[in-house]
Amino acid sequence: MDADTVASGMTYGSGGARTSVAIVDDHPVVLEGVRSWLAADPRLEVVATGDNVDAVLTVGPADVILLDLRLHGRMAIDKVSELSAAGQRVVVYSEHHEPSTILAVLDAGAVAFLAKHEGRDHCVETVLAAAADRPYVPPSLAGAMVGDRRSSRPALSDKEREALLLWFQSMSKASVAKRMQISEHTVKQYVDRARIKYARAGRPAATKSALLARAIEDGLIRPEEIGTYRSYASPDRPLP
Amino acid sequence: MSAERLRVAGAAVVSNVDRGGRMAAVFIAFGWHIGVNVPGLVGGWDDYRVPWAALAGWVLFSLVGVLATARLFYGFAVPVVPLLAVLLIVDVLVIAVVPDGGFFNAYNWAWGTIGWFAILLLYDRGVAALVAVLAANAAFGLIGVVAANTGSGAVDLSRFVMYVYGTGVLPIALVAAMGVLRDTARSAAANEAARAALESERLGAAHAQRERQHRLGIVSEAGGALLHDLATGRADPADPDVQRACALAAAQLRRLIAESDDVPDPLLHELRACVDVAERQGVPVDLIAVGELPVLDVAIRRRLAEPLAATLATARDWARVTVVAQPDEVVVSLTTPATAGPAKESHSWPMDGVVDYWYERDEELVWTQTRWRAA
């Protein structure tokens, strides 16, 4: 299937405030399904779809590319690196949700990872967060982070680990908040802080820098916390 | 494996016993050679026909003795037959240089000592070879006595027989006794090894039996009463509580069966068995495992899986089972809509401080978790 312009003939929202999304998948059914998920949300606009990254990008720039990790029988992790290095926000979604694959995708600079079974709400939220350079951690990603045993893994605080673990287990922030006896907002902060620590690890990428910059802007982490690994282990109390 | 270890241990017992016999043989031979033969040699120095020949013979005996000792204790390969020949030649030589009338005293030292040195060479080669050497020695002695022809033939012959008997019987007795002792030790060690093997087999069987009975106990507890009630009509299969109890018993049975399977990740295997039962009842279950499971004892696995399996058996809508494993920590959890599990709001209790268990239920979800931490 060649890339086709979906946006043509669509009316743009006020001042182009809508987030443009391109979807790359080699299964037409999945492509249609995901497009209908995203198109149903007024904040999103699907500008291109196709089974080939380059063909889709020639249609025009998109804020976020939703990329199926396995295209025509091969894993497109190198494509993720290439796009991320160029500053393109990539959200990888895949039926391959082994922790090692997920962590490799994060290392390559993907803004987020989504397991295909995680459903519409996670998908929409992930794309919106990605467009704003904000972290979004679906449960499968939380599981990969909490089970990470690589020596290069960032140092997470106990609270961050516990929040990730409970979020992975229950998929309900309300439930995590109740068990940790903290607010849902604080749960999200713990989880997002853990994700931001991963943006520091591995190869640098423009998308990782954007995540870090936005995290500092949002007050999720302090600039000095980005300096060294040691500072990651410092106060584990989330910032106000 | 353990039978092999026992066999080796048995061989060690035998070699220990044997070592005592070898030491006795060496002490007797050298004790005699120094304590009796040296004074004989010195006393007869002026009388020997060729004193140097007698001295050379003594030195050769000593050399043969040292070589034989090295063989006995350190397994040195020495040529046994040539060394026996050396002993016999020295024997003949000394008989030849002994002065007249000195045959039956300490001057003729080699003739009385050869038995003890032959033992050193023939220690583990049976009595027959030793008897042959002693017979040759007796023959040489007889020739010597006849050749000396002292004129008191009958008396000499009687003394000759007495000496042959005296010098021959003791070495033969020592070799025969050590042979018997070796055999006794060998059979005692073999008996002990067989007894120990039997005992460990018995213990293993008893352990397996206890395990089986323990599992059978759990199974009977789980399903026995329920089956009885169903059979007697006391329990109604249409009653949701009965159905729940049946599901629980089925899950327990599946898990107990899975427990004795030999698989790489037994905990996951056992959890899959529980998930399987739930799925057969039409409940979609996600089982997601992260990390590499450490080796866990069956009792710990039971504590990790059992509480979750009980709740899972009553799940209706969907369920999510997660396992997060690290070398020193394993966390298993189950999340399912609040229609399952006991209604009690929340409780948690440590199980022997090895595995902790939490159960929580709010309006929406039931959440249970078991957590093992390495001591």
UniProtKB/TrEMBL annotation, chain A:
* A UniProt-annotated Pfam family: GerE
Q: Which residues carry this modification: 4-aspartylphosphate?
A: 68
- Residues annotated as domain Response regulatory: 20-131
Gene Ontology MF term list: DNA binding
Keywords on record: DNA-binding, Phosphoprotein
In terms of Gene3D superfamilies, this protein maps to: 3.40.50.2300, Winged helix-like DNA-binding domain superfamily/Winged helix DNA-binding domain
User: What does the record list as GO biological process?
Assistant: phosphorelay signal transduction system; regulation of DNA-templated transcription
Give the InterPro entries listed for this entry.
Answer: CheY-like_superfamily (IPR011006), NreC/VraR/RcsB-like_REC (IPR058245), Sig_transdc_resp-reg_C-effctor (IPR016032), Sig_transdc_resp-reg_receiver (IPR001789), Tscrpt_reg_LuxR_C (IPR000792), WalR-like (IPR039420), WH-like_DNA-bd_sf (IPR036388)
What this protein is called in its record is DNA-binding response regulator, NarL/FixJ family, contains REC and HTH domains
Q: Which organism is it from?
A: Asanoa hainanensis
Automatic annotation (TrEMBL), chain B:
| Protein keywords | Membrane, Transmembrane, Transmembrane helix
Q: Does the keyword Transmembrane apply?
A: yes
Tell me what this protein is called.
Signal transduction histidine kinase
Q: Which residues cross the membrane?
A: 24-45, 51-69, 76-98, 104-123, 130-148, 160-181
Q: Where is the signal peptide?
A: none
